[in-house]
Amino acid sequence: MEHYERHCPQPERRYNCLIPPPPGYKVPIKWPRSRDEVWQVNIPHTHLAHEKSDQNWMVVNGDKIVFPGGGTHFHYGADKYIAHLANMLNFKNNILNNEGNIRTVFDVGCGVASFGGYLLSSDIIAMSLAPNDVHQNQIQFALERGIPAYLGVLGTKRLPYPSRSFEFAHCSRCRIDWLQRDGILLLELDRLLRPGGYFAYSSPEAYAQDEEDLRIWKEMSALVERMCWKIAAKRNQTVIWVKPLTNDCYMKREPGTRPPLCRSDDNPDAVWGVPMEACITPYSERE
């Protein structure tokens, strides 16, 4: 995924001019209507609507693109899926906000960001992340809808957020190999999550019974156990892990357990161009 990471282009490929809007561009529809519909002319690549038509991602309707709220894992709507996650965690009234305890969410591989869009009505701000991959620039749809999002990947460099930035992380069929390079990508999520933070993982590995998915699930379960994460809930096609609140579990691990704790001179808040490390960031004394 390194070739998808943000980088400075060579001088001959840089733009030294103002980029005009595309022909026929219209003033974007205002929020909250924009969550559900945008002007088609503003986003001229609509093949994704046909490719994902069976998953309710979006529908071309005349001069607009309409977003029914579906996704690869939640065909019947992000709102129902979000309530399902809250119900799994026994949150009051099935509201993921949990009475103000969850305010920031990081959505990995977000597609057109319907998950993040529907969280806003629960007073939760989600930062949605997706690459410019085979589905082209999905983030363009998210931004046109008015949903916080940016183009990027979990690759080799730390994501541009200080440690403990999010209370909840989410991956719904995000097509990420979490086991690669000693679990370095999952450890980057660990750096971003606050003490007691959650990671909701909706993917075939969490429920499928074929040999390959069972292998991945077994190895991933062993990895998160060594990271001191616990299963907060597991139901149907989703598992939710929770991070420890203190360093106690880290201190009780057997010597030589991998992943190791990060070096004492490692600054978990240094992010600009800093390579990821396959290590666990322990909590400081003030946390």
From TrEMBL:
GO cellular component: endosome; Golgi membrane; trans-Golgi network
Gene3D superfamilies: Vaccinia Virus protein VP39
Membrane topology type: Single-pass type II membrane protein
GO biological process: methylation
Alphabetical UniProt keywords: Glycoprotein, Membrane, Methyltransferase, Signal-anchor, Transferase, Transmembrane, Transmembrane helix
Subcellular location: Golgi apparatus membrane; Membrane
Family to which this protein belongs: Belongs to the methyltransferase superfamily.
Protein name stated in the entry: Methyltransferase
Organism, as annotated: Musa troglodytarum
